[in-house]
Amino acid sequence: MIKPRHLISIAQLTKEDIENITNLAKEFKKNKRSNNLKERNVATIFFEESTRTRTSFELAAHNLGAYVIHLDVGKSSVSKGETIIDTINTLNAMDIDYFVIRHNQSGILNLVTPYVKGHIINAGDGCNEHPSQALLDYFTMIDNINDIKGKTISIVGDILHSRVARSNIKLLNKFGAKVRLVGPRTLLPIHESAEFTCYDSLKDGIKDADIVMMLRIQLERMEKKFIPSLNDYKKLYQLNSNTIEYAHKDALIMHPGPINRGIEISDEMFDWPKKVVLKQVENGIYVRQAIFSYLEGNNR
Ligand code: CP
Questions:
Q1: Is 53 in the pocket of ligand 1 (CB under 6 A)?
Q2: Is the full-model pTM beyond 0.90?
Q3: For a substitution probing ligand 1, which of 48, 53, 133, 214 has the most ligand atoms within 8 Å of its CB?
């Protein structure tokens, strides 16, 4: 089997690739330290803000013995007009082996990849994809319910602007889950697909769901008014101690973060026993260690 050199999209991974990454992550959960990236240079380059993704990629690289540098984009030569391609070429000349990049332009990493000598990892590109998030979400799911085949997974919120939803839809379908997308019609896909069904009612959308994944309303990506107000959105789509009753009684509650407290999830849900949001964060380190280790040495 030829393994991938870069991680740009979930679409490029086979089911076997995902199982291999998940199995590696299980090993890192038992024992974090390894020398898989010894003498490798990892650069994290974030053109958009991040707490979880950047920190966990940096910790993951550190746990594997890599040397990690963070390019502070705001204080880099990007602010003097240098293009992303010239930034990549400059870092290539300094023997960077791994480029972990987040950017607000959907699809930009496909343009950058031909210029990278080593490996490139998509840490989120606009509304397009967030593959490492989908991999850590999947790891957290099977860590809790073992197998997602035939399980109903409801993704609730701003699907239109969500790279997390796009990557998850691709991954969950590879493993035979039933994917529901739930939210206001303006934030759902226009056309239905074999990969998901759409609901504009929270009650119907999460009815008997095995997993409920809540998403944030991404006001920063909205030029138009897609919802009347956050208050109206909250009345119709908030997960709280009443609305969770629609889901299966043992439903896992997930959220990729960051959370807008009191909007998509009520405060009382933070103590809900089946909420695994901080487990997703912890698992992010093991899964990102597994991603680096899986890409290492591949030249496809
Ligand atoms: N889930 C996620 O991408 O979070 P950050 O924006 O904090 O990295």
A1: yes
A2: yes
A3: 53
Q: Whose CA is nearest to atom 4 of ligand 1?
A: 52
CA distances from 281 to 54, 58, 162, 214 (A): 11, 13, 18, 15
Ligand 1 atom closest to Cα of residue 257 = 1
- Does ligand 1 lie within 6 Å of residue 284's CB atom? no
Helices 277-295 and 131-145, interaxial angle, to 10°? 120
pLDDT by residue, tens only, the chain of 300 residues: 778 999 999 999 999 999 999 999 999 999 999 999 999 999 999 999 999 999 999 999 999 999 999 999 888 888 888 999 999 999 999 999 999 999 999 999 999 999 999 999 999 999 999 999 999 999 999 999 999 999 999 999 999 999 999 999 999 999 999 999 999 999 999 888 999 999 999 999 999 999 999 999 987 776 668 888 889 999 999 999 999 999 999 999 999 999 999 999 999 998 899 999 999 999 999 999 999 999 997 764
* 237's tokens: 């789509």
Q: Kindly list the distances between the CA atom of residue 276 and the CA atoms of 126, 145, 227, 270, 287, in Å, as whole numbers in the listed order.
A: 25, 12, 28, 10, 16
